[in-house]
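Technical annex B. To support the medicinal chemistry partners, we prepared a structural model of the target in complex with copper (II) ion, based solely on the information shown next.
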Amino acid sequence: MKRILGIAAAIALFGAGTALAHSYKAGPIEIGHPWARATASSAPNGGAYLSLTNTGTTEDHLVAASTPAAEKAELHTHLNENGVMKMREVPPIAIAPGETVKLAPGGLHIMLLGLKQPLEKGARIPMTLRFEKAGNVDVEIAVEAAGQAAPAADGHMGAGGHDHNAAPAQKQ
Ligand SMILES: [Cu+2]
């Protein structure tokens, strides 16, 4: 398995056939593949995902995000409260030394509130991430197909679940 991952990494480095793989660095923080799902034209909000790896020796925090593509970006997570998935804004996200924190569908995410236009598959959206210690870093969000990497059968996008295309906190 390690060897396969190594080969995949090598391919990514040489840019062959992995156009979607992209990463960034802010000091010791590595930001892996920022991406978002394409949104319907009526959707007011979207979600952005990425991974954060701390290659340094001290803890850092993702404090905030901003993008010209939305009125506001908030750090969110999903919580299951009495069987109902809800979103909550979270405090700065800690990244411990040597650890990787994944922002992914169904969990931590960067909520893009008030999209100025729909996120179209294939587009690249600029976003600035702010870290407590590593400072600001500009990244591009790759917009992928609407159903990309949807968690299987967890109800995330189904009845009673949370859908980024809907207004936040509509289920009380
Ligand atoms: Cu959210």
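Notes passed to the chemistry partners:
Residues 4-18, 150-163, 165-172 have pLDDT under 50 and may be disordered.
Helices lie at 2-14.
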